[in-house]
Amino acid sequence: MDKYKEVVETLIRFRDERDWAQFHDSKNLALALLLEASELNELFLWKKESQAEEVNPERLKEELADVLTYSLLLAEKHHLDIFDIVLEKIRKNGEKYPVEKAKGTAKKYTEL
Fold this sequence. Notes:
Shape: globular
Number of helices: 6
Oligomer: single chain
Radius of gyration: 17 Å
Structural class: mainly alpha
GO molecular function, one term: nucleoside triphosphate diphosphatase activity
CATH superfamily of the domain at 3-80: MazG-like
Number of strands: 0
Keywords: Hydrolase
Protein name: Nucleotide pyrophosphohydrolase
CATH architecture of the domain at 3-80: Orthogonal Bundle
GO biological process, one term: nucleoside triphosphate catabolic process
CATH class of the domain at 3-80: Mainly Alpha
Pfam families: MazG-like
CATH topology of the domain at 3-80: Helix Hairpins
Helix content: 55-70%
Distance between the termini: 43 Å
Order of helices and strands: HHHHHH
Strand content: under 5%
């Protein structure tokens, strides 16, 4: 079994054993994702750039896991393969941000 399937199946089993699927509609999953992303951002809030790079690795792992968990649950609910949608997004971004125009700049594609 590949790692992706193992993670998703373990996550779904964990959820189902606790009868939490009843709470996991798309709205609640999206809101939970937002809250967990905020907790991730909190690790870096009000820190200077050099301090932000020295974030506690255990806390970073915990918050990233929470963000990814809700992302996976939301994708699974809509029968989306997270790797497929990320690869598709990279392809689309490649069209919007061609190397010859975007390299070395943080401008939005509409400003290139």
